[in-house]
């Protein structure tokens, strides 16, 4: 039995099993092939067999590197998180730095629409993910909030990023055209009132993130 089948975090195991000949493909190539499959056909298309086929190898050969599909997903997520580099420098306010990082996250999620689903599972953070959290805490160092509050803010920002990424990809919208609002006075009043256009240059993403960060981290907490 190969080392990869012994369980535990993939990051705590050798990069390949110690038995048999040196494998043709390493973790980085395996992760790249899996990400390409997910980008093309969604997360459901990613299986040990499919990734092995994309690399021209037998499915059993992957088990010299991985013990399960969860290992594969951990590799994929960490590879994608690495695309957030280079990280923001110390220039500007902490909110400006975090917003820049969030914009990179948004672009990342749009490049890899399956990523929010992969992030929703219980995963073991790899080196790129640990570096991301470390940078987040470095950016938030000037904020006089507790560590728990900072991790809450980091998680909430990722949730908002995922929401904006999914909204951009959505094809359906809710419309109230041709709907009888007679029994819904608040809706009727809202649509009857003139709706001012957003100011020039309005950035809903930035406005939402700034309000979220300041509300979570600088407002008085109970």
UniProtKB/TrEMBL annotation:
Residues 1-26 are annotated as: Disordered. GO terms for biological process: negative regulation of DNA-templated transcription. The keyword Ion transport does not apply. InterPro entries: Homeodomain-like_sf, HTH-type_TetR-like_transc_reg, HTH_TetR, Repressor_TetR_C, Tet_transcr_reg_TetR-rel_C_sf. The keyword DNA-binding applies. It comes from the Bacteria. SUPFAM superfamilies: Homeodomain-like, Tetracyclin repressor-like, C-terminal domain. Residues 47-66 bind DNA. Residues 24-84 form the HTH tetR-type domain. Keywords: DNA-binding, Transcription, Transcription regulation. One of its GO terms (molecular function) is DNA-binding transcription factor activity. This is Transcriptional regulator, TetR family. It comes from Micromonospora sediminicola.
């Amino acid at each position: 039995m190969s080392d990869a089948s012994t369980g535990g975090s993939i990051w705590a195991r050798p990069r390949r099993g110690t038995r048999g000949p040196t494998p043709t493909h390493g973790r980085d190539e395996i992760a790249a092939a899996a990400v390409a499959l997910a980008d093309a056909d969604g997360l459901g298309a990613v299986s040990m067999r499919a990734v092995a086929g994309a690399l021209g190898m037998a499915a059993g050969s992957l088990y010299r590197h991985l013990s399960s599909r969860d290992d594969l997903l951990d590799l994929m997520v960490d590879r994608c998180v690495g695309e957030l580099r280079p990280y923001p420098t110390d220039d500007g306010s902490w909110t400006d730095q975090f917003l820049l990082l969030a914009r990179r996250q948004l672009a990342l999620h749009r490049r890899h629409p399956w990523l929010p689903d992969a992030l929703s599972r219980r995963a073991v953070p790899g080196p790129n993910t640990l570096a991301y959290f470390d940078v987040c805490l470095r950016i938030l160092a000037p904020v006089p909030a507790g560590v728990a509050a900072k991790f809450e803010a980091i998680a909430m920002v990722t949730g908002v990023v995922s929401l904006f990424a999914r909204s951009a990809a959505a094809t359906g919208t809710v419309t109230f055209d041709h709907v009888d609002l007679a029994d819904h006075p608040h809706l009727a009043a809202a649509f009857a009132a003139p709706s001012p256009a957003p100011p020039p240059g309005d950035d809903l993403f930035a406005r939402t993130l700034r309000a979220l960060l300041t509300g979570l981290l600088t407002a008085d907490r109970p």
